[in-house]
Amino acid sequence: MIPKHAQIAIIGGGIAGASIAYHLAKRGMRDVIVLEQGALVSGTTSHAPGLVGQLRSNESLTKMLMYSVSLYKELRLDGAAGYFPVGGVRLASSKERLSEIKAQERFAAKLGLQASLISAQQAQELFPLMDTKGVRAALWLPDDGSATPTILARALIARAQELGVSFHPHAEVTGLWSVNGRIRGVETAHGLIEAETVVLAAGIWSGLVAKTVGVSVPLIPMQHQFAVTKPIPGLANVSLPNLRDPDNLVYLRQRDDTLVLGGYERNPQPFSPDAIPGGVDPTVLKFNRPRFKSLHRSAAERVPCLETTKLAKQVNGLESFTPDGEFLLGPSSAVPGLWIACGFCAHGVSGAGGVGKVLADWIVDGEPGLDLSAMSPDRFGAKAADVSFVKRKARRLYSTYYDIRNPSEH
């Protein structure tokens, strides 16, 4: 039975909501409830490709992702691991990209993250299926890895429940409840729930929920496609690192004896929800084969066996993107008591561990321990309510996701 009041109510039962709940309980906040409109660990968490990288251009974000990995390494669900530190390889197939990964190596060293330049041949030794044509060098990150997001999320839920947090699936939140401009709780299909603090971690639906108290959440769901191959001979007996080939706009990871391949095409498709649709998982849309063709072709150029290997599964999942590629994380200045945690720009699994920690510290201590000003939900001002602005910027960000970026510029 859903309680009628709680100190903190979290909207969203995916990996981010689970992590926030666990870290709040770990900090002694036990009167916490998590409300999920569908089944727990559904939505984006259920279909995320599961590549976990740590190196980003933002120092605070990189530290958050490093914390995520340290947490994921120790999580178990009925003895099963949800994180596998297979490492990650970033290829440089151009002079400009080589300069970028050299800068990334220096940036990583500054933060204490292991990263080293390796040759094309060394990269091929780590990922024997790849063709080294055009590769000048690569960046090797040994602590990066692959995740089974559903296991990580359920492990976090189990830990939070042990500390007293209650999780409530099929508890649809129909709106936020405020009095005199301050959060008082949430409205659900089961009635009002009083809460002095509400954390909005509802993924792509966060904007629809926030709108009920006049708060604009500047994110757009983008259609992110990837595919899983049929079994590849010999792959079950090896362990391959994640492979990112940004000059060709693609990524690959091993999943048992198959490969997962995806990327960021130049002509992405946004999704503009006016309401939360029904269905078992409304964050999965029909796969668009023609739109995926260019990414499949690029992946096959780098890993030739993909030319003849058939695909067993194709996914068109929705991922939240913001206008500038940074998270939406922190308190809402417009409605005291409301906290935002969404817009993870395809870093949701990588970031969830760190998101939970900094947000819990922020709520309990009054400050997050890191400079998160770049992630402020208020940073766009009045433009946050301009849907055309948000869509245009987010679409451009997605289409240039793998373009050259210098860490020193951020």
Mean pLDDT rating: 95
- The total strand number stands at 22
Helix/strand/pairing category = alpha+beta
Q: Name the helicity range.
A: 25-40%
The CATH topology name of the domain at 5-51 and 149-219 and 323-392 reads: FAD/NAD(P)-binding domain
CATH class of the domain at 5-51 and 149-219 and 323-392: Alpha Beta
Just name the CATH architecture of the domain at 5-51 and 149-219 and 323-392. Answer: 3-Layer(bba) Sandwich
Please give a structural write-up.
The chain is of the alpha+beta class and 410 residues long. It has a domain at 5-51 and 149-219 and 323-392: FAD/NAD(P)-binding domain (3-Layer(bba) Sandwich). The chain is built from 10 helices and 22 strands. The protein has helices at 15-26, 44-47, 59-72, 95-111, 120-126, 149-162, 206-210, 289-302, 348-365, 387-399; strands at residues 5-11, 32-35, 51-52, 76-77, 80-81, 83-84, 88-92, 116-118, 137-141, 145-147, 166-168, 173-179, 182-188, 191-200, 220-229, 242-245, 250-255, 258-263, 284-285, 311-321, 328-331, 338-342. A 9-stranded mixed sheet has the order 8-9-7-16-17-18-15-20-19, with helices on both faces. Strands 1, 2, 11, 12, 13, 14, 21 and 22 form an 8-stranded mixed sheet that branches. Strands 3-10-6 form a 3-stranded antiparallel sheet. Helix 1 packs parallel to helix 6 (149-162), helix 1 runs parallel beside helix 9 (348-365) and helix 3 (59-72) crosses helix 9 (348-365). The longest helix has 18 residues, at 348-365. It is globular and about 65 Å long. It starts with a strand and ends in an 11-residue tail after the last helix. 51% of the residues are buried.
